[in-house]
Amino acid sequence: MAATEMSEAEQIKTFKDFLVQYNKLSELCFTDCVHDFTSRSLKSSEEKCTLNCMEKYLRTNQRVSQRFHEFQMLANENMLALAQKSGNPS
Amino acid sequence: MAAISQLDPAKLQLVQELEIEMMSDMYNRLVTACHRKCIPVKYHETELGKGESVCLDRCVAKYLDVHERIGKKLSNMSQGGDTEDLTKVSLPDKK
């Protein structure tokens, strides 16, 4: 991925990922926070819960992403070292 | 890797795109799974607690460990002897 600017296809993909994430977040936080259906409107506690839920999920995602990339880099280094050790097996 | 590099460029790109898609799918599942297991449903706080953070770190490590083991076993089962190639395919170099 040498190009710094995103192609149209990539932009669409990014946007799609965002929407998928958005829907997932709505579902998750709705199921976790809204239990009371005696009223049509969102209670303030429910609203607070949903917004906290969202922010916390994003933080979770961030942390998982950090760890994930660390493992990814380790795996790549190991693969590289292995390939060099075995003298480029083709 | 040897078998893949013999493919023509168009197919190679398809394989690479598939790998990236697979990785991002795996990543999404990882986030969902670890969120379920480590973050309690009570959302009083937006910050991650210390215990939650440590749980997430371990969860990621364990999930990836499981992922790798299952990948190895699957490739063992699917092609008996030559396991190296499939495991390499399942650990793509992400750019």
Automatic annotation (TrEMBL), chain A:
UniProt main location, coarse: mitochondrion
Domain (Tim10-like) ranges: 9-69
Membrane topology listed for this record: Peripheral membrane protein
Key word Membrane present: yes
Subunit composition and interactions: Heterohexamer.
Protein name per UniProt: Mitochondrial import inner membrane translocase subunit
Record's comment describing the protein's domains: The twin CX3C motif contains 4 conserved Cys residues that form 2 disulfide bonds in the mitochondrial intermembrane space.
TrEMBL record, chain B:
Subunit structure: Heterohexamer.
Annotated protein name in UniProt: Mitochondrial import inner membrane translocase subunit
Predominant location: mitochondrion
Compositional bias segments (type: Basic and acidic residues): 85-95
Keyword Membrane: yes
Entry's localization field: Mitochondrion inner membrane
Lineage of the species this protein comes from: Eukaryota, Metazoa, Ecdysozoa, Arthropoda, Hexapoda
Gene3D superfamilies to which the protein is assigned, alphabetical: Mitochondrial import inner membrane translocase subunit tim13 like domains
Topology in membrane: Peripheral membrane protein
GO molecular function, one term: metal ion binding
Organism: Arctia plantaginis (Wood tiger moth)
Region annotation (Disordered) ranges: 74-95
Keywords: Chaperone, Disulfide bond, Membrane, Metal-binding, Mitochondrion, Mitochondrion inner membrane, Protein transport, Translocation, Transport, Zinc
Database matches in InterPro entries: Tim10-like (IPR004217), Tim10-like_dom_sf (IPR035427)
Pfam families: zf-Tim10_DDP
One GO term of the biological process aspect: protein transport
